[in-house]
Amino acid sequence: MNRVAAAGDSIVPFPVGAEFATVTVMLNRKVFLAIAISLLAVACQREEPLTEAKARAIIEPYLQRREPTYAEVPQRVWWGPSSPKDAYDGLAVQTLRKLEQAGLVTVTESTRADGGMEYIAKVTQKGFPILGTAPSMRGPVYRGLICYKVYDNLRSFQQHPAQKTVGAAEIVWHYDEPTNLYPLFDTKINKPLKKPFFSHVSFWYEEHQWKFNVNVKKAEG
Q1: Closest by alpha carbon to 148, among 181, 171, 174?
Q2: Is 142:100 a contact under the CB 8 Å cutoff?
Q3: How far apart are CA 155 and CA 9, in angstroms?
Q4: Burial 28-65 (b: 16+ CB within 10 A, else e)
Q5: Measured distance CA(196)–CA(175) in Å, rounded
Q6: Is 104 in contact with 122 (CB distance < 8 Å)?
Q7: Cα–Cα distance for residue pair 202/152, rounded to 1 Å
Q8: Strands 66-74 and 197-206: what pairing?
Q9: Tens digit of pLDDT for each residue in 37-88?
Q10: Burial, 110: exposed, middle or buried (Cβ in 10 Å; 0-12, 13-18, 19+)?
Q11: Half-sphere exposure of residue 153, counting CA atoms within 13 Å on the CB side?
Q12: Digit-coded pLDDT (tens) for 127-174
């Protein structure tokens, strides 16, 4: 063991070499253990009866989000004897024409051999950074951000009569903050602004954690 001392100080021993490494490892283990205990304390949430106040605390971070809401329109719209025109086809053509007027796509109209009609849209340089693409049951679509889903509050909380850590409630929300694309997409289905909707949500305690799940994503009321 080496010793070091300043003038007038008492001699204080300190470890070197293998002894220093041993002390360092011991200190690192203590620090790691302290951190692990702290993280475990944070991760393990206390089990307690599920009340409305507790449900609100669980769901609060989720309610702070603004959820982007998109609308879609097929890149190709067509109809004919084998597939008659429906109401959605008309809305899709209206949407493509509005997007064309805004300079976001170009639309080619043609008459099919069977007497039907066909409209094919191609994104422009202006529309490329604004309109995304995605697959759908009607073929490839253009996809645009039209507004946001904004959460309002929690209501109609009920605790399970036999399981005190289980419950259910409703989350009230609405569509808001429309973008410039909102009026262009006639194909947006049931997305009126400011109108309240709600979602059913369930809560439960499992594996030292409070959990929730949105069971019914959208209902009117």
Answers
A1: 174
A2: no
A3: 70
A4: eeeeeeeeeeeeeeeeeeeeeebeeebbeebbeeeeee
A5: 8
A6: no
A7: 17
A8: unpaired
A9: 444 444 577 889 999 999 999 999 989 999 999 999 999 999 999 999 999 9
A10: exposed
A11: 5
A12: 999 999 999 999 999 999 999 999 999 999 999 999 999 999 999 999
pLDDT attached to residue 24: 54
The residue ranking higher by pLDDT, 21 or 144, is 144
Q: Which two tokens stand for residue 199?
A: 């979602």
| 7 pLDDT higher than 50 | no
Cα 110 vs. chain centroid, distance in angstroms?
Answer: 40
Looking at the chain, how many residues does it have?
221
Reading the block at residue 45, the tokens are 């949430």
As a whole number of angstroms, the distance between CA 29 and CA 35 comes to 10
Enter the tokens of residue 22: 């041993």
The residue among 218, 209, 212 whose CA lies nearest residue 168 is 212
Residue 81 neighbours by CB distance under 10 Å: 9
Tokens read off for 168: 């259910």
Q: Render the chain in DSSP notation, one character per residue.
A: -EEE--TTPPPEEE--HHHHHHHHHHHHHHHHHHHHHHHHHHHSPPP----HHHHHHHHHHHHT-EEEEEEEEESEEEEBTTB---HHHHHHHHHHHHHHHTTSEEEEEEE-TTS-EEEEEEE-TTTTTT-EEE--TTS-EEEEEEEEEEEEEEEEEEE-SS-TTEEEEEEEEEEE---TTGGG-TT--S--BS--EEEEEEEEEETTEEEEEEEEEEEE-
